[in-house]
Amino acid sequence: MTTGPGLRERKKERTRQALITAALGLFEERGYDETTIADIAAGADVSARTFFSYFPSKEEILFADTEDRLALAFAVIDQRGPEDAPVDVLVRAMAAVFERAEQFGQVFDRAVPVRLRMVFSVPAVQGMALQRMLSAQQRLAARLHAAFPDRLDRVEAAAVVGALVGAVVNTMLSLVQAPEQVDELFAGDPGPVLAQLRRAVEVAVAGIGAS
Amino acid sequence: MTTGPGLRERKKERTRQALITAALGLFEERGYDETTIADIAAGADVSARTFFSYFPSKEEILFADTEDRLALAFAVIDQRGPEDAPVDVLVRAMAAVFERAEQFGQVFDRAVPVRLRMVFSVPAVQGMALQRMLSAQQRLAARLHAAFPDRLDRVEAAAVVGALVGAVVNTMLSLVQAPEQVDELFAGDPGPVLAQLRRAVEVAVAGIGAS
DNA sequence: CTGCAAAATTGCAACAAATGAAGAAAAGCG
DNA sequence: CGCTTTTCTTCATTTGTTGCAATTTTGCAG
Q: Please, which contacts does B127-130 make with residues 24 or more away whose CB atoms are closer than 8 Å?
């Protein structure tokens, strides 16, 4: 018999999804600042207080789906080949994340474009995104150090990851100056953007001394 | 006759300084979250409402002194020599900022250690710091592009700056895992920390492919 | 120094985010 | 069915933030 998760768990998950759906819809429709916690809770048919037992803050609900993307990168790093250099696995990890974004971005993950628009238009959300990015970099660095224990110390691993992610993130920002550009970005061919991001990777790999 | 700034301006500046002083003192003494706007305003002998006509938010008062550090970097970039490569001026700019931190950090700028401690202990402040960092990188990139118009396009300049700053920031974070370490960092010899940061610069310059 | 316009400050009301505490409702389980 | 544990709700409270109208202070012309 498939015991599976009990009713309690299932209900919890349903509420969680309802909150996320309500939040994304409202953010999209009215904007982030114009949507209150009370609105979101009402949209999911729970009390406002309950919202905070699912998400610690209004911003966090936008990042409910980011962990698996990071897991993807971890998996790539953990599967290093014996001939791989740190840069190889890192670039491969980065490529895997890009590819996933390209494949699923528009169709499956409604959160992605909404979040991206908020990141570029709402300061508080941008701050949270950057914080999570930094923490992700630290975890990536730890993983990279573990994969190459005698080639990279902890601090050097942080520098390596920081250089790569820094180049990509800052490039991304220079491509999107106005929030409207996020929509254009998801509407058309993602090729040109990905090409620019690949250039950023090259800059980090070859070193800024090469420019 | 030294016209100078009128009484109105001087008073405004005095109030501004009083607010900053009160805020730093209270943050240091009680902590950030434990200090309310009302406390800060009381410490500067103004109404709480007035606080917001000087600073748009509680976080911003911690960053009242950051603009001149950026100006230092700008100045270095603007004074590029005819033989300089982008990496030369960037590294020089970074060194100038480090040096200034080394010289003045403990003695003159009380804001620096306080802010740093808050950055590492208060999420909201960290978010704001990262946002400002990102915006600074964009401005640096624009300046770098202007200094090397035919060697770096706008996007590539962003990648270059991002790689360098990313390496340094992530290294910094990996050196300071707990907020208490900020105090150790400012208490002892800054040499070892600066050495690590220099290694981060080298990683960015030589490229992560070299590690 | 007097009066007036501009600017700064204030108090007050209001709203939203976040948190704590006590009790009601629901789910799991014997 | 009763009992226990978890979850949800209600209520109150604190704090950051903003708008508005009243008041005070400053700069300046006469």
A: B127/A124, B127/A126, B127/A127, B127/A128, B127/A130, B127/A131, B128/A127, B128/B59, B128/B60, B128/B62, B128/B63, B129/B63, B130/A127, B130/A130, B130/A131, B130/A134
Instruction: Evaluate whether B173 touches B186 at the Cβ level (below 8 Å).
Output: no
How close is the nearest chain A Cα to the Cα of B137, in Å?
7
Beta-carbon-side half-sphere exposure of residue B31 (alpha carbons within 13 Å): 7
What residue ranges of chain B have pLDDT lower than 70?
1-5, 7, 101-108
Q: H/E element holding A87?
A: helix A86-104
Ranked by mean pLDDT, the top range of A61-70, A108-117, A199-208 is A199-208
SS3 at position A130: helix
Q: What is the largest distance, in Å, between two alpha-carbon atoms of chain B?
A: 63
- The distance from CA A21 to its chain's CA centroid, rounded to whole angstroms, is 18
Q: Are B166 and A164 in contact (CB under 8 A)?
A: yes
d(CA A132, CA B126): 11
What one-character DSSP code corresponds to residue A65?
T
DSSP state of A55: -
| Residues sharing a CB contact under 8 Å with residue A142, sequence separation 6 or more, in sequence order | A154, A157
Q: Positive or negative, the Cα torsion across B53, B56, B61, B66?
A: negative
B2 touches strand D (CB under 7 A): no
**In the structure, what pLDDT confidence band is assigned to residue A124 with cuts at 50, 70 and 90?**
very high
CB-count exposure of residue B11 (10 Å: 0-12, 13-18, 19+): exposed
User: D9 C1' – A13 CA distance, angstroms?
Assistant: 19
Q: What is the mean pLDDT of chain A?
A: 90
Which nucleotide is closest, CA of A34 to its C1'? C16
Buried b (16+ CB within 10 A) or exposed e, A21-36: ebbbebbeeeebeebe
pTM: 0.91
